[in-house]
Amino acid sequence: MVSLQAAVLSVWAQDIPVYQLESNVLPGMNTPRMSHVSFSTPDGDIVVVGGHTTSFSLTPTAERLHNGAWENIDIENAHDYAAVAMMPDGRVMLAGGTSGGGGYGYTHYCDIYDPSTNTFTTTGNMINQRSLCSAIATGVNNDIIVSGNWYANDESFDLWSNGSCTQFGSKSVQMHFPHMVSNNQGTVYVFGSHDIYGSLQATTLYKVNTIDKTVETVDDGLLSNYVINPASYGVPFASSVTSTGDYLFIGTQDGQYDLLAFNATTGTFRKLITITPPEYITTDGRDFILFTNVLVNNDRHEAYIAANIQKDKRCLIIFNYDIEANSLSAYYGDDIEDIPYWGCSWAINPTNQQIVMTGGTLIGSNFDANSFAISLSPFGGTMVLNPEASIGTIQNHLYDNGIWYTADGRRLNCKPEQKGVYIHNGSKVIIK
Description:
Number of strands: 33
Strand order of the largest sheet: 1-27-26-25-24
């Protein structure tokens, strides 16, 4: 049965359950940084790499949050506005980035992080020098493909394999920070809407066969109707893929934000849900801006979309998308308005499921990097902003009779046994 929620979410602006976003300030990083790479390790540590620090200067540094403290890790090369890819064997590759302060220039350097030894190793360089580029594992051995550039050539692809790079392919539409999705069998899809100069262009989708070294343009009939913002720097694409192989991302159409999914196995896109800011948060005229890639938590079957509300003061909203129930809730962090959103990076701690957000700038300047680190919990918490009205209005629009739902609108497969407040047949029910 098709969920009614997807069809009517454009009218839920006042109805979405909104909760207080729980946060915990962590020790600051040793080096202030922004536009850096961030990822988690299997044992729950958070690693940050590169970016630029104060005075918009490169920082060839890395550090790991371990047992509540930041520890420096040696790395040879700086990676600012660089590509990052998770390798099938658990290692992490960084590629390219700017070559000088002020966001200028390009590099072809590649470094690999091994979480088992907590060390970086320099490996074979790309053929093409790149910044504002993207990378992803092809699924064949530990091969990595790199695409994208900034004010420089992006006609071909770099393919790293077993310590060395080759170059292949030709594409007429060049991009910076393109989105990349792999079917893990050698085929990679590359798409985006912004060229190497930052200008908007027609949304283009490439299908790249890294085994046969062929490139073809594909028109799926849906993606071309959307504007796709450049992929976020510093977050591996693997962090946005669900356990069923869907890559989640945001597209805009007619001023509307839609959460979209692309499955590289079937080669198909589909719309999941429309993301609209709650009216009681934005009616004062503050700007609503989605930022960063979608972050998927497969352990909780959730996806997180961060939004920044700006005007006289700022706040943070994290939309929590329930992948199984196709429903949305919001976590509103008005009490943590001093988070330096712009230029930050984020990752999920696999041991406690919390989001760790690092770095960025408080004043919107590349010359004012921050050492800030905070953990966020976009689940549970206390409902805020007239929750009775929220529940009462939602049940008239979204709930199917005969189905049990949690108080925040999540569909259940059967009658719950755990104590709590639920919704059934349009009414609140307390199970004791």
